[in-house]
Amino acid sequence: MSPRVLVLAGGLSHEREVSLKSGRRVLDALRTAGVEAELHDADVSLLPLLAADPPDAVVIALHGATGEDGSLRGVLDLCGVPYVGGDARAARLAWDKPSAKTVLREHGIPTPDWVALPHERFSELGAVAVLERIVARLGTPLMVKPAQGGSGLGAAVVSDTESLPAAMVGCFAYDQTALVERYVPGADVAVTILDLGDGPRALPAVEIVPQGGVYDYAARYTAGLTTWHAPARLTEPVSERVAATALAAHQALGLRDLSRVDLIVDAEGAPHVLEVTVAPGMTETSLLPMAIHAASLELGDVFTALVGRAAARSGQG
After folding, report:
1. Which of 67, 191, 296, 317 is the most exposed place for a label (fewest CB within 10 A)?
2. Band of residue 211 on the pLDDT scale cut at 50, 70, 90
3. Which positions make up the binding site for Mg(2+)?
């Protein structure tokens, strides 16, 4: 008997519409595979529903803080409802990019040098002086992005010192802490890590080629602004190195079931981990479904296996 699944999507973050699209696609994939599933928002009606009629497993298709900062996962743990993906602690760690990068660095996993700067420190210490020190340490170009957030919102590549203040202001519109890291030119790739029961493995990397050079929100979700190659156009030795690095990042952060690791591959073929996502997008232009297709898998079969694993963690299904 297959588990009964609740797909959570929507929420109140800036990524609500993307989340709803992801949730509907997962819902359709599960139903096509013969799994009983329904879609629900993360609102005030959720906890009464879980108490009155708990599902066998939950798929979290919520993007932004609600789905990725570990808080909802902690509530599901309190309710005794199993879910697909990393637990609350691991999700919280991956969600905070400076913390995640610190762990990656401690494990010897390459990630670009960075500075995390809260808005209040930026103001108290003097914007001009702080930015001068950042440029002196990291040089240019730089990548500026929210310390917590996704979908490329608030992210910008800064090619010169004069452009940095505006990038910081744009970043602070989405988060109180900005992550400023050294920009590494190269091929932008994403690797999905999947564990269907025989241990985590890396699916074929997806290469991302945005027209404007930056994979921001518009490039991710506007048709025609980005070209994807699945599998990525990498040599076999580089592909193996990228896969091993992505898998190491997934394991270093203590993740399970699935994640998406975003990397830059530099001109020498060396991968650098940018960030790790615990609730990857599932839309028509999202990278995880592309990787699943490149691996000759079906989205419905993958999520059927994942919800089965989640349900089994509580002795159900």
Report:
1. 296
2. confident
3. 262, 275
